[in-house]
Amino acid sequence: MDKKSWAYILIIGDEILLGQRQDTNSHYLASELTKIGVTVKRIIAVGDDKSEIQNALQDAQNNSGAAIITGGLGPTQDDITRPAVADFFGAQLLFNPTLSEIIEKKYRARGIKIPECVKVQAEFPQGAQPIDNQFGTAPGIFFRQGDFLCFVIPGVPTEMKGMAEKFIFPLLIDENRVRPFLYRVFRTAGVSEAILSERIGDWEMEGIKLAYLPKYFGVDLRISTEAESIETANALLDQAEERIVSQIGDVIYGQGDIELAEVIGEILTANNWRLTIAESCTGGLLGAMITDIPGASRYFRRGFITYSNQAKSDMLGVPEGLIEKHGAVSAQVAGKMAEGAANWAKADFALSITGIAGPTGGAPPKPVGTTYIAIAHPEGLDISKFSFQDNRNLNRLQSARAALLLLHTTLKKYIS
Fold it and tell me: How far is CA 280 from each of CA 7, 330, 354, 400, 410, rounded to the nearest angstrom?
């Protein structure tokens, strides 16, 4: 395959290797390059070391058609990317009066006297092309050596994105350094990666890759392909999608980056149904997930946070005797919470959650992580018990997510 459509991403900075700063630049660049049809072969984090930078750049030149380097273009002594890259290409750093004027003009516009050290940013590699920095002072650098392209841009995310979108991506497209790369993502919930793999079996489709992307709350499946044309790529993906849906369609809730709460909202809206919730251990987390979706007020009018036993009785009508007999964390109380919420809110569907989030409060036979989730619906009441972990934050997230999954499963029964 022509390596002109391959790229390396080099992230420069000791702070990355020391864990003092999170690298978000490579995530953005890899995602956007993939969208336009550039294959990212490697992402390399390199410290502020001239030889390390040059070794990584040599690797990129040997094995790809382009390198995008971010970081190390600032005015301080530890910003060595500019001289390191210039030396790699045998280019002398020369004072550029045009760039100097641009930098000084930006400082004057802000009413600030330009620091002496900033003037080093006007020292530019001979033979390279400046890349305009819309959001900062350090100009980017573009080298071309034969078929190899090298882009050197600041590590500040806003500056990096501006240069990538205005200069790098358009140039790669204009020079036909892209190859159609298409993919589709299928989102699942309530089933493990291992079970999905068993149901799908060995994946042998020529030209199509299948990837499992597990997370705490579900598994995404990505099918992808590279082809000579978009039409060919889509035809291959159509065949792969047909197979995926035939094998695991019952646990797929959506495609792309859609969230489960959004899918639920679409179902509720389409059927003019109303939803309410009653939360205890999650303390409003479930409500936040629901109302994160724009337009949630069409189907979600109110919710109840009943953290104490008294609140469960006062707001939802849960009998005090029931709580004394079975405990606040019980199937009986979860059921009454859901029924009480549905009655008060006059809702078609009502979710309730009661559990022991931890780290204290658990004891046999109800250890930390014990959670009951109930759903009241037009045909009755369903209650499920879950045994989560001993991590408080994770327990709360898993409880809210499990409640959404239970709601989605119930709604599907009514629309099937």
Answer: 50, 12, 5, 11, 21
Yes or no: say if 137 and 106 are a contact pair by the CB < 8 Å rule: yes
> Is the previous residue joined to 154 through a cis bond, with omega within 30 degrees of 0?
no
What pLDDT score was predicted for residue 110? Answer: 86
Q: What class, spelled out in words, does domain 3-174 have in CATH?
A: alpha beta
Q: Which fold has domain 181-255?
A: Alpha-Beta Plaits (3.30.70)
Q: How many residues does the chain have?
A: 416
- Asked if 286 and 305 touch (Cβ cutoff 8 Å), the reply is no
Query: Above 70 in pLDDT, residue 369?
Result: yes
**Would you kindly state where each structural domain of the chain is located, as residue ranges?**
3-174, 181-255, 264-415
Tell me the pLDDT tens digit for each residue of 153-191.
999 999 999 999 999 999 999 998 988 888 999 999 989
How many separate helices (H) and strands (E) can be counted in the chain?
15, 17
Reply yes or no: is the peptide bond before residue 115 cis, omega within 30 of 0.
Answer: no
Phi, then psi, of 390 in degrees rounded to 5 = -105, 20
What does the DSSP assignment read for 385-400? Answer: EEE--S-HHHHHHHHH
Residue type, 161: K
Q: Is the pLDDT of residue 1 over 60?
A: no
SS3 track for 132-173: CCCCCCCCEEEEEECCEEEEEECCCHHHHHHHHHHHHHHHHH
Amino acid sitting at position 259: E
Q: Count Cβ atoms below 10 Å from residue 111 Cβ, excluding itself.
A: 6
- Fold classification of 264-415 is Maf protein (3.90.950)
Q: What is the mean pLDDT of residues 131-155?
A: 96
